[in-house]
Amino acid sequence: MAKTLEQSFKRLEEIIAQMEKSDTTLDASFKMYQEGMKLVESCNNQLDKVEKQIIVLNDDGEQDDE
């Protein structure tokens, strides 16, 4: 099941907090890093999708606030 942006950001914060602990092993840190990178990619994809939807709305005659 895909995570929402909010869920992904919350999990990224958890990963960062865990990685900052001095008792985290190198192996665990690497696994968390990999999970974090997948989450970042997912977030980027979701944000790109929203951005494209906004562009389509603007192209359909909606006023752009810029």
From TrEMBL:
NCBIfam families named among the record's database cross-references: xseB (TIGR01280)
- Its main subcellular localisation, reduced to a broad class, is cytoplasm
Per the record, the domain of life is Bacteria
Pfam families according to UniProt: Exonuc_VII_S
Which SUPFAM superfamilies does this one have?
Answer: XseB-like
**Gene Ontology CC terms, in alphabetical order:** cytosol; exodeoxyribonuclease VII complex
Q: What is this protein called?
A: Exodeoxyribonuclease 7 small subunit
GO:BP terms for this protein? DNA catabolic process
Reactions catalysed, as given in the entry: Exonucleolytic cleavage in either 5'- to 3'- or 3'- to 5'-direction to yield nucleoside 5'-phosphates
The record's EC number reads 3.1.11.6
The record's family statement is: Belongs to the XseB family.
Assembly and interactions? Heterooligomer composed of large and small subunits.
Give, as one word, the top-level EC class. Answer: hydrolase
| UniProt KW keywords | Coiled coil, Cytoplasm, Exonuclease, Hydrolase, Nuclease
Q: Which residues form a coiled coil?
A: 2-60
Intracellular or extracellular location(s): Cytoplasm
One Gene Ontology molecular-function label: exodeoxyribonuclease VII activity
